[in-house]
Every structure is written in structure tokens, then in C-alpha cells.
Write a sequence for this structure.
């Protein structure tokens, strides 16, 4: 187990794969921990990448500041990790809260990145997400980490994923409950109290960007991802079929394949974002297909896009 | 060194020696908080926040009472020395930068309470196989759950507007209290052959 020092705090990280290879850095969601990327680490190393995973400040085995955790500190800690990777190509991806940190990193240090993959992500806090965030925070305060997990699981994964584990949900939740503390999760959530939208900074992200959004993600719905697509010049939006907010947990083989293909395309200079909208395949290795021309990808029913 | 209490007996119960030392530590810490809250509480409440203080006092008393009754106590020759060292640690500590004595005293007790409520997670010591119907197991879960709720009063106070001018100093005092309380907790667990989860791997 290795640690980086950010001021008085230690950031626990892990580097795997060949040291000279292009690297993927994976950033956890708010209630997550680095081991949840194990399937990605194995898949991406198998595709020739080096993989960096870590616990954010306040998570898992990293230090947990007692009172305040700023998102600027998370970006600074991420920068320390990326500096550990040398001069080779670096691809950065993060899920949800981690996607936001990745976006913030790209606006500040985009020149160091070869590509960016925000997943289940947002640059703004519109009323629904703001109120959901407040309710989740109240749930954490009143019912602890376990209750927060109880709220998040049915919102963020599908029936197909939940059904086989329904009789052992405690075991599914246990590691996250063990390694994450109420006060630290609360501090992470309260780092949004001073949140300012990133939207106006997004056009400065000049690197290739693949935005991933679950088809049924209602925590961070399509419109939030579309803001990223519209504002980031060299971006594409890829919709993951039948997926919810936490599709990285539910569909690791497909998502890891998409990450590897994106990086391969960027490195081979084949990537063209064009602010296009795509539909991912159901399984790893399948073809991406363009969203049907003329239809509105922000609707849940097939409605033709209004002509300007 | 194990991460969890045990080995459990055939009924899924934690060994009495471990119950004794863990409960003694928790009673010492929560008892000290109860005493500090009792001394801070006026006979007649004058401010809204004192209603929370009243609730905290009785919640701490409930934790102490619960552990006294739910624990299978066993003789422990080291307990006298250990308890004395714990009690000394709960004494008021320095709060640099706060010249207002009343505010400094409030910050001191709040930082101690934050460290105990946030940093001590007794339920995380329970192995999966622990008997959920055992009183000690239930008590540890309840102490951790209630600590998470009690903690909110300390968070609101320590993050509140009244301490904004002293934020760095308060954060430093709080970090110091956390380190102190965690070390006592970790040392106590190590004396039972248990490694606190976050300390299993040696950090550089």
C-alpha cells in the first residue's frame, strides 16, 4: 500500500501494469473505495494500460480530514498522483463525484491529459440534484452510512443486478460501510456547500472527451451530461443501454472495454468527438451506433428533435 | 493480528475479556463526555442550543448504562491502570487562539465529543458471524449508531458561524483530539490482539 503526502494528509494509491504504458487514472464516486476498480484494473492492464487507483481524501484508507474537505484539495491530491505517472499519456476517468473531480482537474491541468472520461457526471447542481443531494445527506446524518447505502443501491443499479444479491445485501454493503466513516462522507457531501457551476469553464477542456451516461440514470440524468457534450469542444456522449447511475459497478466489462477503445482511438489519432451522441453496445466488444438522426436524445420516448 | 473481535464462542458471542476492555474504554469516554455536558448545563435552559446539550447528556448516560448492563464482565488486572490513563486523557486540553474562556471550553468539549463520536467505531469490530441477538453485539451497534447522530451537534457547532474566525485553530485542536483518541482506542485494541481496520497496513 503506497501513500502520497498532501500537506498533513496521506492519500492511499496503487499503480499497476507496465510502467511505460499509457495510464488510466480512475477516480471513485463519493461512497466508494479504490478496490471497486479491481475489474477495471485487470481488464485495462490486459489491454496494455497502466492503471492508477486511489482513495480520495476522506475515503477508505486515505486520511479523513475531520472538519472540512475542499474539492480543490481533491484536485491537488489527484495532481500529485498524476505526477507520479511520469511523462507518458494519461487518461483520466471518474464516476459521479469522482467525475466532477476529474472535470475540475481537466479544467485546471488539461494539458497534462491525453483524454477524459466523465461518467454519471455533472457540472451544475440543478434543483433536482441539489435536493436529492440534501436528502441523501440527511439520510446519512439520521441513519448512518448503512442507510445511505440503502438509499443509493436501488436508485443506482438495476433490478437485474439487485435480484441475485437481494438476500445478501448486508454483505454487499459491508466493505463500503467498514472503510467509510459518517463524518468523512458528510464532509465530502458538504464540499458542495460552496459549489459553483463549472459550465463556463468546460469549453477550456480541449482534450478528447468521452462522456458516459446510463440510459436510466435519474440521479444525474441525460440533460446534465448533455451540458458537458455541448460545452466541451472535442467530446462525444455515449449512452449505456439499460444502465443506471452506478453502471461502473454493474457493467465493468462493457465500461472497461469502452475506456480502452477510447484511449486506443485517441492514441491512434482516430478519435473525433464532434459533439456526437452514440449508443453503446449491450456487451463488451460490440459496435457503438449513432443515436437515431433527428430524434431527441434528451427524451425517454422517441420524439423528433425540434428543428431550429 | 485480527481486524475483528473474537474468536467468537459457539453462540456467536465475543469473549468476555474483550467485552470487558472494550466496554470499559467506551464507558470511560462516554462517561467523561456525560460529566462534561452535565457541568456545562444550567439548571434552567437559556439558549436554544442548550436543549441539544441536555439531549447529549442523557444520550451519553444511556450509552454508559447500556454497556454496563449488556457486557459480560470478566476480571481484568490491567483495567485499573488503563482506566486511569484514559481518564487523564479526557481532561480539558489547550485551545490555542481562543481568548474567550467560555468559547474555548465549549470548543474543547466539542472537539473531544467529535473525536469520540466520529473516531470510535465499535460496531466495525464485530465479525460477520457475531450473534445479532447478543446484548453486547447489539450494544456496540447501538453505540456506533447513536454516536453518528450525537456527532451532528458537534459538527454544527464546530463548523458554525461563531467559529469561522478561528477555523484554522479549531481544526488543529480537533485533528489533535482525533489523533489522541484514536491512539488510545488503537492501543486498547492492540492489547486484545486486534488491529484497528485503518491501521492494519503500516503507513510510511
Amino acid at each position: 500500500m503506497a501513500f502520497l503526502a498532501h500537506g498533513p494528509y496521506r492519500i492511499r494509491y496503487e499503480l499497476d501494469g507496465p510502467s511505460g504504458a499509457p495510464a488510466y487514472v480512475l477516480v471513485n464516486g463519493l461512497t466508494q473505495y479504490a478496490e471497486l476498480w479491481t475489474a477495471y484494473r485487470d481488464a485495462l492492464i490486459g489491454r496494455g494500460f497502466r492503471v492508477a487507483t486511489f482513495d480520495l481524501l476522506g475515503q477508505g484508507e486515505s486520511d479523513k480530514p475531520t472538519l472540512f474537505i475542499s474539492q480543490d484539495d481533491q484536485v491537488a491530491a489527484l495532481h500529485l498522483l498524476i505526477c507520479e505517472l511520469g511523462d507518458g499519456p494519461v487518461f483520466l476517468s471518474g464516476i459521479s463525484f469522482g467525475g466532477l473531480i476529474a472535470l475540475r482537474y481537466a479544467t485546471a491541468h488539461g494539458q497534462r491529459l491525453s483524454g477524459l472520461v466523465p461518467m454519471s457526471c455533472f457540472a451544475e447542481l440543478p434543483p433536482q440534484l441539489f435536493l436529492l443531494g440534501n436528502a441523501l445527506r440527511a439520510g446519512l446524518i439520521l441513519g448512518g452510512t448503512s442507510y445511505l447505502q440503502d438509499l443509493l443501491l436501488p436508485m443506482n443499479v438495476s433490478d437485474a443486478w439487485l435480484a441475485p444479491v437481494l438476500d445478501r445485501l448486508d454483505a454487499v454493503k459491508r466493505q463500503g460501510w467498514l472503510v467509510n466513516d459518517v463524518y468523512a462522507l458528510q464532509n465530502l457531501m458538504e464540499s458542495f456547500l460552496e459549489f459553483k457551476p463549472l459550465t463556463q469553464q468546460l469549453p477550456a477542456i480541449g482534450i478528447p472527451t468521452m462522456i458516459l451516461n446510463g440510459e436510466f440514470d435519474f440521479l444525474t440524468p441525460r440533460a446534465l451530461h448533455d451540458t458537458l457534450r455541448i460545452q466541451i469542444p472535442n467530446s462525444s456522449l455515449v449512452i449505456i443501454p439499460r444502465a443506471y447511475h452506478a453502471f461502473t459497478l454493474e457493467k465493468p466489462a462493457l465500461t472497461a472495454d469502452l475506456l480502452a477503445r477510447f484511449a486506443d482511438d485517441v492514441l491512434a489519432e482516430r478519435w473525433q468527438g464532434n459533439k456526437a451522441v452514440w449508443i453503446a453496445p449491450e456487451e463488451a466488444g460490440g459496435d457503438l451506433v449513432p443515436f437515431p438522426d433527428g430524434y431527441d436524445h434528451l427524451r425517454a420516448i422517441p420524439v423528433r428533435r425540434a428543428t431550429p | 493480528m485480527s481486524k475483528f473481535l473474537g474468536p467468537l464462542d459457539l453462540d456467536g458471542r465475543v469473549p468476555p475479556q474483550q467485552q470487558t476492555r472494550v466496554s470499559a474504554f467506551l464507558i470511560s469516554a462516554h462517561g467523561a463526555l456525560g460529566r462534561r455536558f452535565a457541568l456545562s448545563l444550567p439548571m434552567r435552559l437559556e439558549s436554544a442550543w442548550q436543549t441539544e446539550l441536555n439531549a447529549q447528556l442523557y444520550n451519553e448516560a444511556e450509552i454508559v448504562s447500556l454497556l454496563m448492563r449488556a457486557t459480560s464482565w470478566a476480571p481484568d488486572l490491567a483495567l485499573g491502570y488503563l482506566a486511569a490513563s484514559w481518564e487523564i486523557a479526557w481532561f480539558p486540553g489547550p485551545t490555542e487562539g481562543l481568548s474567550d474562556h467560555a468559547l474555548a471550553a465549549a470548543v474543547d468539549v466539542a472537539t473531544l465529543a467529535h473525536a469520540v463520536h466520529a473516531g470510535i467505531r465499535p460496531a466495525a469490530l464485530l465479525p460477520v458471524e457475531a450473534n445479532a441477538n447478543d446484548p453486547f453485539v447489539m450494544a456496540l451497534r447501538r453505540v456506533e449508531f447513536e454516536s453518528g447522530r450525537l456527532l451532528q451537534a458537534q459538527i454544527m457547532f464546530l463548523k458554525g458561524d461563531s467559529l469561522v474566525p478561528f477555523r484554522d485553530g479549531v481544526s488543529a485542536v480537533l485533528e489533535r483530539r482525533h489523533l489522541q483518541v484514536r491512539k488510545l482506542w488503537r492501543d486498547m485494541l492492540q492489547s486484545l490482539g486486534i488491529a484497528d481496520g485503518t491501521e492494519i497496513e503500516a503507513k510510511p
User: Anything to note?
Assistant: The first strand of chain A starts at residue 2 and ends at 6.
